[in-house]
Amino acid sequence: MRDDLQGLEISRKELQKLTNLPVKDELIIITNPLKNLSQEFITKVQGSEGVTVAFIGFSAFVFCYLIFDVIVKIFANWLTTPSWILLIVLGLWVGGATQIILYVLWKNRIKFVKRNMTSSLQILLNDVDRYNSVIKAIDINDQIEEAGNSEVTIQERETIVEALKLTRADLIRALKTERILRENQSFILKNTELFVNNLATLTAMQVTEQATEHGRLLNEALQIALDVQHEMKRLQSQR
User: Fold this and answer.
1) Among 2, 23, 73, 161, which has the highest number of CB atoms less than 10 A from its own CB?
2) Which pTM was predicted?
3) Is the CA virtual torsion 170, 171, 176, 182 positive or negative?
């Protein structure tokens, strides 16, 4: 990825921090880290220090096995099953139990997000996906160009990147605003008149300054506030 695209993408970690919700959360599959570790180990073994890495890895495995064998002989000497079989069975059991726990935690996080999801937040999350897709498309196009296909050069690339930076700032501001309104729903519901008055003030400011950049930002804030107010009224009617 070229330098001007670095840091533009809104990552899942940043999105979770902005929303204070585990949005876009993915289920952790314990076999994936093991695959990555195995691939990294194989890569190092094939490198210049392969013999050293292989020796250290084998020694660590033998050391762990010997410790496990001693523990079995001390605390479970009545078992007739070879310790290496017990180690495999224990590994599978621990792995399975860990995966089940990770799945339950993941489902709980998903349910928590659904309970706190608002229409405004859903729209903003969709906008973030579209924004990140544009960056991904530009990055892929850059890679194709760097492979020798100069005819795919993006025209006005600098202008597009600058527009993406502005869009990123708008999305972050909107996500922060949505979080503030969402996390203060109970207060807003108890002070409906104050909230309506604030909306009226925002609307008046929008009309008088709609031709300015400041007015455009106010319009965005107003739209988010209106969406959240509609969502809160819908939630209130369900109680």
Assistant:
1) 23
2) 0.65
3) positive
